[in-house]
Amino acid sequence: MSKFWSRMALVAAAGGVAALVAGGALAAAHADSERVKAMKALGGHMGAIGKVAKGEMEYSAETVTHAEGLEKMSKQLIDWFPEGSGGENTRAKPEIWTDWDTFKQKAMDFEAATPALVAAAKTGDRAQIGAALGAVGKTCGGCHKPFRTPKE
User: Where would a tag sit more exposed on the chain, N or C end, judged by fewer CB atoms within 10 A?
Assistant: First the structure.
């Protein structure tokens, strides 16, 4: 093989590696962006249910819709944290990936708490909704404290 073709092969290989690295960075940035959107949506569901529980908003079918939305999203939570994500535009701490088993357990605790919230929402009883929302909120806090940086 001539020097020219040897250099061309080296350039092509380097370009391929650069594309993989750039592609990985883009995928991680996309994951971060989607995760931030999803977390805001979770907060929106929690806030809407909280207003009903506090009597700031009337109970309606939307309360159940918000609870069901939380339950559905709880099943996806782990998928929002692919390895390599967690850039500077996110509050995710590196401990998520270095202590994955603990993080995963906390996500599973959140998922396990949501069906009771759906059941409570279906009753329309503010006290039941508030108690179930408190239990779900406790699982959120149990994850946020060790795995999320404070707001600046």
Answer: C
